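User: Study the fold:
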Amino acid sequence: MLSFAPGRRRFSDLSEREILALAISAEEDDGRIYAGYAERLEPDYPATASIFREMAKEEDGHRRALIGEHERRFGPTIPLIRREHVADYVSRQPIWLIENLGLERMRAEAERMEKDAARFYEAAARRTSDAGTRRLLGDLAAAERAHEHRAEELTKANLGGETREAEDRTARRQMILTLVQPGLAGLMDGSVSTLAPIFATAFATRDPHTTLLVGLAAAVGAGISMGFTEAAHDDGKLSGRGSPIKRGLASGIMTTVGGLGHALPYLIPDFWTATTIAFAVVFLELWAIVFIQHRFMETPVLRAAVQVVVGGALVLAAGTAIGAG
């Protein structure tokens, strides 16, 4: 973060009153963030949601203590100063960004927030000359440092072994439905469906440049088509498959990647060198699909190999035969 950003002040330039006002607004923000996490997680992860609700209550207690200290020293009117007004103050990620990244990302962000708050209160305590304010800020720093342990206590109280495992299974299932399945479908489509046109062009023309252009067109076109299809056909509300935008991106990007894998070797001007490398890339792509199916979809390796490798080999052979003929 740039400390010389226009219109913003440095933390070292704030008065004691402004430091208290900044702390009050920061506690309000953090409490709302935790409450937002709780609301977002309630349907699928009620135990973790209760942890964030407890943390929101603690932040509210800190806010009330800070307001009381401000009233004691400076009266009831609190200056409007927020974290974005201070150039070198800790930032917070937008809640919509974090909540879309999943359960573990929210837990990690909460831990980071507590550590940031503790460092702020330690620095603020060193800036004040009033004994009461210094004591309060020091106590809040200690409380934030202890929040990690408090979070662990809340986790143990609300997330027993079976509950935590159940929530982790739910999170893994949601990841598979939202990202892995669409991405895998895209990778399979991009890797297999583009084999025939690319290799038919390659053996028909023996021209790496033409083959590259056809491969790029096939990969990008297939990616756009798959992405829009995935995003448009299911909004995820009834199926529980998650955000259509994330599913569409996963499908579209992986479709394009699958097609580009065996098209990019034709950047090499020598036809047989490029084709040999493209064959090797196809082999790796197909076995990568087998691995993903086995790892995330629990498909037996033999069945996945028959479905993907044998099917891909047949498409490759068909494209090669058509081009050579």
Remarks:
- The chain has a mean pLDDT of 79.
- Residues 168-324 form one domain.
- The two ends are 62 Å apart (CA to CA).
- DSSP finds eleven helices and no strands in the chain.
